[in-house]
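Fold this complex.
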Amino acid sequence: MKRIISILMENESGALSRVVGLFAQRGYNIDTLTVAPTDDDTLSRLTLTTQGDDHMAEQIVKQLHKLIDTIKVVDLTQGAHIERELMLVKIKASESDIRHELKSCVEIFRGHIIDVTPQTYTVQLAGDSEKLDAFIEAVGEMGIMEVVRSGVSGIARGEKFLRV
Amino acid sequence: MELLSGGEIIIRALKDAGIKHVWGYPGGAALHIYDALYRQDDVHHLLVRHEQAAVHAADGYSRSTGEVGTALVTSGPGATNAITGIATAYMDSIPMVVISGQVPLTKIGQDAFQETDMVGVSRPIVKHSFLVTRAEDIAETIAKAYFIAASGRPGPVVVDIPKDVTDPSYKVAYEYPAEIKMRSYQPSDKGHRGQIRRAVQTLIGAKRPVLYTGGGVVLDNASEHLIALAKILNYPVTNTLMGLGGYPGTDPQYLGMLGMHGTYEANTAMHHADVIFAIGARFDDRVTNDLEKFCPHATVIHIDVDPTSVSKNIEAHIPIVGTCNSVLPEMIGLIEQSDSKPDSDAIAEWWQQIDQWRADQGIYTASRYEESSGNCIKPQDVIKMLYKVTEGKAIVTSDVGQHQMFAAQYYLFDKPRTWINSGGLGTMGFGLPAAMGCKLAFPDCDVACVTGEGSIQMNIQELSTCSQHNLPVKIINLNNAALGMVRQWQDMNYSSRYSESVYEESLPDFVKLAEAYGHVGMKITHIDELEEKMRECFAMKDRVVFMDIDVDRSEHVYPMQMPGGSMRDLWLNKTERT
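Structure:
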């Protein structure tokens, strides 16, 4: 099953490469990866998604925790959580009926058209990965030129938080 | 506060970290460091002949003493030559700091002369690594490196230092940190109290228990606690290859080594056990054989300092994350306080069964091989002779292959840190430089490197290092003119097609070679001269002696687990199996 693993680590050079290296070394796949400094700029928050059963997820969490730069690791899929991914899609939109259809589709998915040319629309959409997949499926026929996805960010629901 | 250059700070920080010896090899990017080394007397440097040997020697020093080993190499080829040594230490959890010179910061990324991304190359085989970018950071980084290397599950740490950071003309205030605190790294040693209680109850209730102990007991200096635990319970003990010496090899409760070339009694007892207590061992594939068939009746209790080792290969029913040194005494205390006692009838019955296995097929009671006669010297008999001549008190290092297994089987190690081998990575060429490290640490102790003509040639240049630094080790070369373990597998699995495993007439005259390096060489071809020559060898306390012993070329290591089988599925010799 899909796992969303969140890591709080020292914002130091080499820290990210250790995480990526670990996955390659232990034979795990990374489906998505996103990393950025937190409000405390000495810390980085890294979220990655991977596939694996409970045993594998437990090993991954333990292995990540073993990295010296890692402060906290949590498998968000173990509990209630929110996931969001940002997507930018450039779509061929030169004919007016396509432009109309696309516009209504974007509204249905609560996205925004953020760039317009006579030939193209660029759409911004946020949501969980399934929603983004659904949008791509819905507009697929119209001629997608480019898709950029940020990878999943996640946060636990309720009172739980990941902080030093 | 004193003002020092980066190079001087490195050496001073080593001194303040308590480091007395550094093994290494200079080169361009490390020259400022070497100049600082020249201008002081606190840190003693030993020049090797190849960087791999520097790391193995630091490793041998660490394994025999328990201290952190240190190696110093230059950038590029110096750093990459060190890699095999670092990987060896990593696999066996040996605490070590490797300092590598790097091209100047201004040149990094420009494919400069002797540039290698050492932090990148070494990443998968280090516990941690640092690239130091300011002279001001050197002292703290070195202190952190030693702290990380030695604590938790130990391992090698690389500190890569660009040349301009060690510039002699740039001086900064030197201060060695009194204490290291890292918010991201706080290894804990205490096991979970509730789990420890559960483990004790399960252990006391066992009817067919085995204590399966590994390198963690040796690394953690927990041998005495293990012995105490085994004695109050009267339970049998088996050691992994890395755990040898952690429990006395001559003790009646000792079953010998377990695993691929483990004893019949150890492997069979494991298979039938109802409780297996793994202490600082990691269920390596060379121990378990087929995981599906592993010990079908056993409840597994597992202590390990590294949570990732627990339930990695074999699910632990009662996992305890903690050090042997902390958890074992706690367990002993609980056992002593407990109202319930082990079922002495069941344990007596278990011992009766084990004694029967020992009598039938025990490695020291049943004949695993035909005895030596005339010019047919059996390698096993050489190890037995080594044990006899050194009275079981030598530090024995080994290389990798058949000789390693024979040494593990037939030299009975009574003390921890006296059996020094590359168990995890299986690095040929480890034995001689590791022996140098042991000899440096224990100049009054006999240090024997058990090797083969294949392995010894992988770092034979270190015979020169032994001369320069007066390290009179003894080399016991089991010469069968072939890569014995490779050939054994080719015999068993490839219809004796000896693909590239024999040397034909190409081997050097090891006696002359030893003499060329200024040492003593001996050639032994007849069993009758073995004892006398070996006594002569060990009587020469201040000389390196290279004993080149022609051994039976057809000998195999037995017992040997059958691939895809359970622990007890063994070849007992070339024709018999369980």
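The radius of gyration of chain A is 19 Å.
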